[in-house]
């Protein structure tokens, strides 16, 4: 224990529990430790004063409740930490000091404890702190005006009582406090006593009693537990003068009695008594004596004057005794007169009492009233001393009741104070709880944000080893399996709220995990599993954010208050933030119907059902039925609604596409329409999905967008190039230096509205905005993708690398909100053209492209005329018998396979047949495969047993090299004139066949590059390289460079050959093989690294051999004899 404490003393601890009555109380020395707000107790004071002594125990006052034990005197209880401690003081005042000091210390400690928690100074805490400060400033000495004997339990009589600096002395109910604060109550008591004396004895009190609280001196510490004089009725209680003198010598009061009797018979005698009790110091005694002397006079017509006596403190013995004797004689006369009047009064009262008894008996007999009137009769005294004894007994009883009243008032005041303080503490606790709850919510939100950031960081650790997303991705994470275990914990926690979230086990199961949109996810790679789980958890935590709930409320309010979805600033802001899943179907439907409202009103409500009924027998539909059937199965092969030909989604999709062919025969079916209709079927009915297709092809886009020449889509790519040049000049210059056409990548983005180009959640946000704002959203998102990956694209130094990174940038755009902010912020800052300006620019480019397309058509018509003229000449020759009939099928292509067999394609311009020739057996047989176009070229992928056939009908067909069964068919933008390939060993699965990169020469003068070609249906991403000529690309071959062994691609276009590096598709060199602009290369053939490349020019008998790098012509040979 330290050398000084604010509160200490001796208390008795009373046992509690079922056997407490059989146990005795124990005395301990208690010390309050302010630093910890604990009440410690020791065996005695000596042990408590030792510096190194340990307490026997302690009571935690922090948060404790202090109660008074009414059934046990001077006892109080402390309820702390689920236990009750009962302590007893020596007297009531000591108990009140303890409980009030503990109460004040508890409140002060609580107020002090509130500050470090960062909750701020609340109103209640400030109020409590102010009260504690006032108590500290106004606190008196620990004695509080009481005698030293009151504090014997606070360390003994010789130990100086410590000052309790935090005790609220004003709250302690002393005798003086009771008298000062309850004058009304004491006045009533005095008046009642005066009335009783007047009624019983014929006396009246002329003045109320005055009471004062005196301080006992150290010399009077043996006066017991009295704190001071109480209500002093000694003026009416003296038995004899000797007793008065004895009391006067002990307490040194000055008392004066003045009694007067009326002179007349009608007058009533009065007894007037005033007294004061003074302290121990002489100055105060003198003031009290002078102020307490009382004189009373009574006058009447009878003329008997009253006399009084005064008792004064005398300095000389004889004179004092004479005066005292005179006073006693006067007192004796007065008392005799009082006794005479009393007897008269008693007689009168007896008479009145007998009358009342007679009246009561009469009423009982009559039965009119049933009540019992009881009244104690006046006592009859045999002598004056008996009367004084009775008065003294009643006065003692009154004093005892007064003392009990004071104690109860003190208890009541403390209880009220404790209730107020506990209420204040409760309010502070409630405020603290609210602040803590707010802080908890903030921390929880911060934790959720940290989780989202952690998951987003995991997603950003993606790497694409081969540069192509379709080859697979990897997550480069430090820490081994720690991140996977952490993801498992987060996933288990999130699945409690959302059980639809995937598990690691479901991702590796054969059936995979099916999400809420119907897409099946099955990931064998651990990196892909971690990435997909991270994405799903990131989306889950996004739904727990406050801004998500606020966005939902805004949408609910908007839908409730708006019947139409006209384009407004509010609706635009809401849609750019994303349409909630629960409202997407309804909002899409309203936006689509707003676009086709005029068409629907003209066509009628039953228009779609009529188209469906006519489609089965329509010749228009028959022209597109096969292509539609081929595209159906590759629309959404990973979705359970479109995974088989019997799926409901496939049936609906076929119905929609066929109905559209009837609705717009001039357009019919075009590449990308299946994706648009399929996307609509995920959220709309089949009729609404049909109107979505109508709105896209006829309302949102230009009418030439989905024609065979795709003039509208090509014009948009030129507009996009202008925007890239304006907003990203460095990237535009870099792309131009590499001689790359960005439109070869972005064309499919625009045709299919980014379907299968962006992650699905990002795709939904784009579609939300597109259905409201139109095609300008496509430009905004294209610029956002390029902007977000500009740095990575600028680091690419080859064509294929830039294409792959551009493709990967779109596929890995998982940050939906970030991409949307970039898209629309870029439009506001850099000035993306408005819809009207975009339409104007598109119109200019469409006019230029239409003119170029018309020139191309004229050349084709001229070629067709030449063919017709040749055909007429052939017919004439047949008529003359110079040649056979041309109706016989012609061989259009052939190739040899590694097993020694030969594949031959023959037919006419409408269809082709495929047969196989076994040279060793001299056997040729048909494979039963019919191609609905003339086959122009063929190529064998030996490693995967696949034969590719290019057709003039603008598609590539794949056949199984063993059985001849058709595996798949891929649509191309123009006729395929030549095919070659390069194996890609890095993409080959373990134990599986290698995939190939296929190069196709198109009649449009461009080279198409298809990645990862094998036995499976390829995806829709195709790269196109514009060779820069107006002539078609007629031949393509792959050769090996002699110096580094790298591959070089020879592509013939007109009278020149463009050489490209096969790995990067960068331009290597250009070789002009003829000076005549109308000449064209007929074919190219690789003769090996040591030999070179053979080529032939159409219509020329010369065969040339060039070096593999195209640096020189090694041989020219004329085959004419």
Keywords, separated by commas or semicolons:
single chain, 1121 residues, alpha+beta, PH-domain like, 6 domains, 7-stranded antiparallel β-sheet, 4-stranded antiparallel β-sheet, 30 helices
Protein model, in words:
This protein has 1121 residues and is of the alpha+beta class. The strands form nine sheets. It has a seven-stranded antiparallel beta sheet with strand order 4-3-2-1-7-6-5. Strands 15-16-17-18 form a four-stranded antiparallel beta sheet, with no helix packed on it. Strands 19-20-21-22 form a four-stranded antiparallel beta sheet, with no helix packed on it. It is built from 30 helices and 34 strands. Helix content is 45%, strand content 18%. Residues 116-125, 135-194, 196-314 and 368-376 have low confidence and may be disordered. The protein folds into six domains: 8-170 and 406-434, PH-domain like; 179-218 and 225-313 and 329-380, no CATH class; 461-542, no CATH class; 561-700, Orthogonal Bundle (Helicase, Ruva Protein, domain 3); 702-849, Cyclin A, domain 1 (Orthogonal Bundle); 936-1118, 7 Propeller (Methylamine Dehydrogenase, Chain H). It is elongated and about 185 Å long. Helix 2 crosses helix 3 (123-138), helix 17 (607-615) packs across helix 19 (648-663) and helix 20 (673-681) crosses helix 21 (686-700).
